[in-house]
Write a structure and sequence with these properties.
The protein is an all-alpha fold. It has 18 helices and four strands. A hairpin with a 2-residue loop joins strand 2 and strand 3.
């Protein structure tokens, strides 16, 4: 009994560190449902529940296997930034086209991992440029929070209940930040406050009355030049530059030896396989890794246990994916969109910090501005041109910073190949 109590005390920091991640897993459902809804990909209930089941269940099963095998906190997820990207493209590309683009991205990452050239590919897609694109993709969702506070839109009067609901959620978000700090993810009290006001003002729909296991709807990926040029380079960058590479570097700084090539192979192969059921990007995710592998998770040898609670949450969401899909009927779409915006504030802040820290600044700012625009040339949308123009500006005007970034990435890749952890 004493031994069990001692073991629980040793494990407790890991469990506490994983609670915010678990809550965010549930909060991200709002973004997925926004992507699947009539304002995005316009999926059927069956397609939505199948996509949710794969987005949550497939990566967390991989995470469980890798964590148990290597006794390291290897929390593989369905990349949140990729989901945001899919939402942003929902009115331009169809579900099968996005699945095809993500499948090709996974194949590129897989081939790069097999041949050991992941770092070389990443060197040609600088992280600051990718962060500029992400900031541009995220900004409209955050702006929409405040648009939802309007009492009139395009000359049409909005019932007071709607801005009251969103305003309550925003106020709860800010108060939570002030009172609880990082101890409680502010998106949780924001969502609860929004739900409470929605219930009191009669805006909630019917609660799901039945439960069935989700069926897996196979998608026939469509490979179009527009989708490939618009989405595939961004997804490759998200899988490598934005996710796996910095996550692995951070884990090494904490004394871990993550199996880099295995992770890249799993990331690429998992993305290819998962894309048969809808667009997905399977990877490590830096924000959760900072919690699961960081000092707050307790004794280094036990930090891998911080993965178990998020894995359980991911599998739970996957099993109850049909009910999760019904939330689009239960919860007002305006509240879901507002929750998506509030949930993405942290991502926006992080991306803006990265694009202003250097050594590249002009290119990322151009990438940010283009991603925010409605620019379309030769049938290709703003996200493609965001990468092209941002990278072109940095290559032309910030050559020294570009060279420095390439050298750092190549050095990290060379050290990884020799199994040497980076300095610092």
């Amino acid at each position: 009994m004493v031994e069990r109590s001692s073991e629980l005390r040793r494990t407790l920091p890991a469990l506490i560190a994983s609670i915010p991640i678990t809550i965010v897993f549930f909060a991200v459902l709002g973004i997925v449902l926004t992507a699947a809804g009539p304002n995005g990909l316009d999926l059927t209930d069956e397609q939505t529940s199948s996509w949710i089941a794969v987005l949550y269940g497939f990566p967390t099963l991989i995470a469980l296997v890798l964590t148990v095998r290597y006794r390291q906190p290897l929390l593989i997820t369905g990349n949140i930034f990729a989901i945001i990207f899919f939402v942003s493209l929902g009115d331009q590309l169809g579900f099968p086209e996005l699945a095809g683009a993500s499948m090709l991205a996974g194949a590129i990452v897989l081939a790069a991992a097999v041949f050991g050239v992941t770092g070389r590919i990443a060197a040609w897609i600088p992280a600051p440029i990718v962060n500029g694109l992400i900031a541009g993709a995220v900004m409209p969702f955050v702006v929409n929070v405040f648009t939802s506070l309007s009492t009139t839109q395009e000359g049409v009067r909005i019932p007071y209940e709607v801005p009251l609901m969103v305003g309550s959620a925003l106020l709860a978000y800010l108060v939570s930040q002030r009172v609880f700090g990082t101890r409680v993810p502010p998106i949780l009290p924001a969502f609860l406050a929004g739900l409470l006001v929605a219930a009191l003002t009669g805006q909630l729909g019917a609660f799901p009355s039945s439960f069935t296991l989700p069926g897996l709807e196979v998608v026939r990926p469509s490979f179009t030049w527009t989708a490939i040029a618009t989405a595939t380079p961004v997804l490759v960058a998200l899988l490598t530059v934005q996710s796996n590479i910095p996550s692995i570097v951070y884990m090494r700084s904490q004394g871990f030896s993550p199996p880099e090539r295995v992770l890249d192979v799993v990331s690429g192969a998992g993305t290819v396989l998962g894309s048969f059921f809808g667009p997905i990007a399977v990877s490590l995710a830096l924000p959760p890794v900072l919690l699961t592998a960081g000092p707050g998770a307790g004794t280094p040898s036990l930090r891998y246990r911080s993965v178990y609670l998020p894995v359980a949450a991911g599998l739970l969401i996957a099993v109850f994916a049909t009910v999760a899909a019904d939330l689009a009927v239960l919860v007002p779409s305006t509240l879901l969109l507002a929750m998506a915006g509030l949930a993405l504030i942290g991502a926006l802040v992080g991306a803006l910090k990265e694009i202003t820290n250097g050594p590249l600044v002009l290119g990322p700012i151009f990438a940010f501005a283009v991603a925010l625009s409605d620019m379309t040339l030769f049938g290709l949308g703003p996200f493609f041109w965001s990468l092209v123009i941002g990278a072109g500006v940095s290559l032309l005007l910030e050559r020294e910073g570009w060279s420095r970034l390439r050298a750092e990435t190549a050095g990290s890749d060379e050290q990884a190949g020799r199994g040497v952890p980076p300095e610092g």
